[in-house]
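Predict the 3D structure for this chain.
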Amino acid sequence: MMVTDTVSWGPSTIELTFEPWDPAVDGGDVSSVRAIILAGDKVLVVTNEHEMHIVPGGQPQEGETHDDALRRELLEETGWTIESAVPLGCLRCRHVTPKPEGYRHPYPEFVQKVYVAWADQFTPEAKHADDYERLAEFRPIGKLAPNELPNTQWAMLQAAVRVPRPGRPGC
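Done. Predicted structure below.
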């Protein structure tokens, strides 16, 4: 299932396409890692000054694995550690506007690896106080309406809840 959105990120307009995970993408094409974090029947909803979303994460540092980057970014942005994470899909991103002056990220196309992860412990002091993400709180999945999220995030959430939790048969 592929789902597409067009969004504004700062001065750029970007076309996003969510598609199922393909291990062939796992190389140097991945510019950042993100996760939908679940806790029972709830999903972690993150809010910043511009939007609400369900895919916190960020860029790996030099020499860092995707898994290590994901765990670090989630802790820094939300204060949450995770038990486990499973690749869910990738978000293919394509700028449809000219490259902004001074833009230092991949252009015109980049890929974000998206995981489904299960919450472990909340460590509020680990969250960066000056981080871009302001608030992270769990909300019941059944109370989220499709129009509260971009189509790509709604599709990711629907896919995430169908992934079996590692080490827990039948869950």
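The two ends are 23 Å apart (CA to CA).
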